[in-house]
Specification:
The protein is an alpha+beta fold and about 475 residues long. The protein is built from 13 helices and 18 strands. A hairpin with a 4-residue loop joins strand 6 and strand 7. The structure holds flavin-adenine dinucleotide. Flavin-adenine dinucleotide binds next to helix 1, strand 4 and helix 11.
């Protein structure tokens, strides 16, 4: 039986360590949320002995309320279960790999259209019981305040609200500026939904390649109308524990607008060095769009991190920004408390910390976002730790799968070189487009094609039969 006990001191003596290929067959997982539970159960199912350290019930983050494991802190929805949707396809891939979190979600399902919504009590209780009963898992109740020394492998899954002491230790191990405490996400639009009769490609004063950005010009009247709408738009109230302590470098666009009617025109919307080819002049203001992915299938609105509600973002950006009238938003802006490492810089391709390779990271702390993505990252973290234990190289899932897409994001491979790393849900533009494989696919057939490619690649990688796919 698993046990809850104190004293997670990581002393090696007297633990009866089983050896595999000369490596210790015991792993510490810190944090029993979505990622930690997924990882612990996956490792334990392979015969690895797991010490799972969880601070609850001794201490809870401001967002965690129950004493159970794998707590869903907010919505009870794991979002769309339709494989035509990126997260729905991720569900499918996790099911095919035997994910314990997906199994618990399926067993706790409540009716919610094509979303996978769950009874959170049944869901959490099922995973808590599986962990408590697993003979290979020892559940230890303790707040871990320091990063353990090697050589035993450790998987850190402490999530977006990692406690202060451990966060400080992570900052020391990664370098201070490699750990963020808030995310600040600007909306992303599909490239094909931008009006190119209005947008012009140009870098300020022709720097870089001269046309690295797309620019959406506004005249004075359009700009002032936009600022009025921005100020009046409905905003999401911050949680009590995330009183706004914004970094000056990534203030919400509406907070900048509150500082004065022309502040944005001197800030992220400044037009200097950008000549609109239709007028031959600098406009009054511009919205700049920067490539989000190497293939150029999507663009983010530079400097437009925002707390506007999602319906308000769509309404205001479509109606007030020339060129975005028909914009398809692949992601909307948001800002919230979120502890995450600058993964492309500090993590190796197998999710281990470059500076201290016995430490692995998984879940939201790596910069993935959402319940399902965090569980998926926990699964990948477990596979990577398993590979290390066996003395093998981690065989990453192929790029076209949604699991591969998450790793492409975390390693930075899905993004341009100047990308400022920010968390993301799984979205289609994280996988290489069909053109990267030499195919030209019509817009209406694109998703089906991507789904088929993902299924094929997953089957080959996981040595599963394709018929078991759907
Ligand atoms: C307020 C809020 C609302 C959210 N709403 C949603 C939503 O509606 N939908 C969605 O998909 N995602 C939502 N998220 C994101 C969601 O929380 C994560 O995607 C997911 O829970 C992350 O999984 P994780 O395992 O990485 O972290 P968590 O699920 O947070 O698990 C981390 C675990 O580690 C434990 N822990 C932390 N520090 C220590 C320590 N030092 N020692 C021991 N244990 C520790 C915690 O107690 C916790 O059990 C929300 C996040 C927040 C903060």
């Amino acid at each position: 039986m698993g046990t809850i006990e104190g004293a997670c001191n990581f002393a090696r003596a007297g633990r009866g360590v089983v050896e595999t290929s000369g490596m210790p067959n015991e792993v510490t997982v810190i944090g029993a949320g979505l990622a930690g539970c997924e990882a612990a159960l996956r490792l334990a199912s392979e015969g690895v002995r797991v010490r799972l350290c969880e601070q609850k019930p001794i201490k809870r983050s401001p967002a965690h309320h129950s004493d159970g494991l794998a707590e869903l802190v907010c919505s009870n929805s794991l979002r769309s279960d339709n494989p035509d949707n990126a997260v729905g396809l991720l569900h499918e891939e996790l099911r095919r790999l035997g994910s314990p979190v997906l199994a618990a979600a399926d067993a706790a399902r409540v009716p919610a259209g094509d979303a996978l919504a769950v009874d959170r009590v049944i869901f959490g209780a099922a995973l808590t019981a599986r962990i408590a009963q697993h003979p290979n898992i020892q559940l230890v109740a303790e707040e871990v305040r320091a990063l353990p020394d090697g050589p035993d492998l450790v998987l850190v899954c402490t999530g977006p609200l990692t406690g202060e002491a451990l966060a400080a230790a992570i900052a020391t191990a990664t370098g201070k500026d490699a750990l963020a405490f808030y995310d600040a996400l600007a909306p992303i639009v599909a490239a094909e939904s931008i009006d190119y009769a209005i947008a012009f490609a140009q870098s300020r004063y022709g720097k870089g390649d001269g046309d690295d950005y797309l620019n959406l010009p506004l005249n004075r009247e359009e700009y002032e109308h936009f600022v009025r709408e921005l100020l009046a738009g409905e905003k999401v109230a911050p949680h009590v524990f995330e009183e706004p302590r914004y970094f000056e470098g990534c203030l919400p666009v509406e907070v900048m607008a509150e500082r004065g009617p022309q502040t944005l025109a001197y800030g992220p919307m400044k037009p200097v060095g950008l000549t609109d080819p239709r007028t031959g002049r600098w406009p009054h203001a511009v919205v700049q769009l920067r490539r989000e992915d190497r293939a150029g299938t999507s663009f983010n609105l530079v400097g437009f991190q925002t707390r506007l509600t999602w319906p308000e973002q769509k309404r205001i950006f479509r109606s007030c920004i020339p060129g975005l009238a028909n914009a398809e938003f692949l992601r909307l802006g948001q800002i919230h408390r979120n502890t995450f490492v600058d993964a492309p810089r500090v993590l190796a391709r197998d999710l281990s910390l470059r500076a201290r390779p016995h430490l692995f990271f998984a879940g939201q702390i790596t910069g993935v976002e959402g319940y399902v993505e965090s569980a998926a990252c926990g699964h990948l973290g477990a596979l990577s730790v398993l590979a290390r234990l066996r003395g093998e190289e981690f065989a990453r899932p192929p790029d076209g799968t949604m699991l591969g897409a998450l790793l492409r994001h975390v390693s930075g491979e899905a993004h341009p070189e100047d990308y400022r790393y920010q968390p993301t849900n799984v979205i289609w533009n994280l996988v290489p487009p069909p053109e990267a494989d030499g195919f030209k696919v019509r817009k209406e057939d694109r998703k089906r094609w991507l789904v088929q490619r993902a299924r094929k690649q997953l089957a080959a990688w996981a040595k599963l039969s394709e018929s078991a796919a759907a």
